[in-house]
Write a structure and sequence with these properties.
Layout (H helix, E strand, L loop, with lengths): L2 H14 L4 E6 L6 E4 L9 E9 L2 E10 L5 H12 L14 E7 L3 H11 L7 E8 L5 H10 L3 E6 L4 H10 L5 E6 L2 E3 L3 H11 L3 E10 L5 H8 L10 E3 L24 E4 H6 L17 H11 L3 E12 L5 H25 L4 H18 L26 H67 L1
Parallel strand pairs: 1-3, 5-6, 5-8, 6-7, 10-13
Antiparallel strand pairs: 1-2, 3-4, 8-12, 9-13, 10-12, 11-13
Length: 463
Amino acid sequence: MARSARAQEEIRRFLDIGAVQVAELDLDGEEAVLRPGPGSPPVTHGEVFVLVRRGGRPVGTLLGRVPEGADAKAVLADRARAECGPAVFAGPGEPPFTTVVVATRERAGQLARALDSLLAQDHPRFDIVVVDNAPVTDETRELIERKYAERVRYVCEPVPGLAAAHNAGLDAVRGEVVAFTDDDVVADPRWLTELAAPFAADAGLGCSTGLILPARLTTPAQVLLESHGGFAKGFTPRTYDPAHPPGDEPLFPFTAGRFGSGANMAFRTAVLRSVGGFDPATGAGTAARGGDDLYGFVRVLAQGHRLHYTPYALVWHHHRETWRDLETQAYGYGAGLTAYLTAVLVNRPALLPAFLARLPRGLAHARTLTAVRETDTADGAGPPGDHDERTHPWPRRLSRLQRRGMVYGPVGYLRARYALRAAVREKTARRENTARRETTAQGENTARRETTAQGENTARGAR
């Protein structure tokens, strides 16, 4: 097929993707409870992406179709009971004091929605820090002062980049545990308790991650991203232990994307500080385009600490909405992956032999991860929720962008390091110039006072 015809066909397929409703279904008791997802209207007929809960905890997702005129709750509850068996789990336990860090940049409306959900957490003892990253307006600071001043601390980080913002937040942390999320999420009321409690149960735990589901699936871009795997890592809790590498993860620990994502992660504060925090040359807002969260996961594991994934710590993420957003995200995913690997090897050269030993399999994994998929049959559509199956169509354009990003990632990281050093030098020079001006001003003031005093003494002597 000619390139132009193939591109037109990909566009047609993309535009044919219909909206999907988002809902929650709690199967507690005899009577199921159906609620729309955060910010969604009540469920009607059509396709519905459903989060199934038991005991208030997430246990699975399904994609159901509600016929016109049918009872949506009855249809979806019957399907959920058939597919999601009874869950058996212990309570989360008492979580330690936790600080939540939210990095943001010029998105006050989204930030307010996220903060409202964070302030509704059932965690017994936590505080919140908002880091305003390289702001160009006072909108975020004014929002915090006007609406959240008594409950949220504000930090400004002038150096651009998500990792730099997270490090600034880390400096302000007071809790034993630090949790990170984004300004475009809505946190489930139990999110922070579920994410932080594992640290109290396991003294060797350095990091925990949680479940990320789509808040809305209204545009083709949102549906396609979620069908490609989204951010979710499934519904089975799992602990990764560097002392006992998982047999089904031959690339461990370098496939860090399997561990979790930056919109839903927490660290033992002392552990994250001991590895130097995040590499400030990684992350969105830098030339590296991403990878700061993956870098943090691998550094903590390489230090000998365990990492725990829990599907019970849930945030709802507002995916980007347009094809252009999806292109940017695909390229950023590829760039962030190889940028973080470069950062790990630069900062921890001892990992190079292990990395080289896994390189052939890693290249094969990267090809699979970015492969073009042209399946569009009803059986192979890979609806949202089939995470890691990757059977949904993935356009050639996005595949190509991911691979280009992977090639660019190491270069982007090195450019980001250079830019960071230049910014640090400039910041140091400004600080030194300010200090010199203050010293000069103090000297001039002292000289003027001495001259004045001498003149007054002379005048008194003459009298």
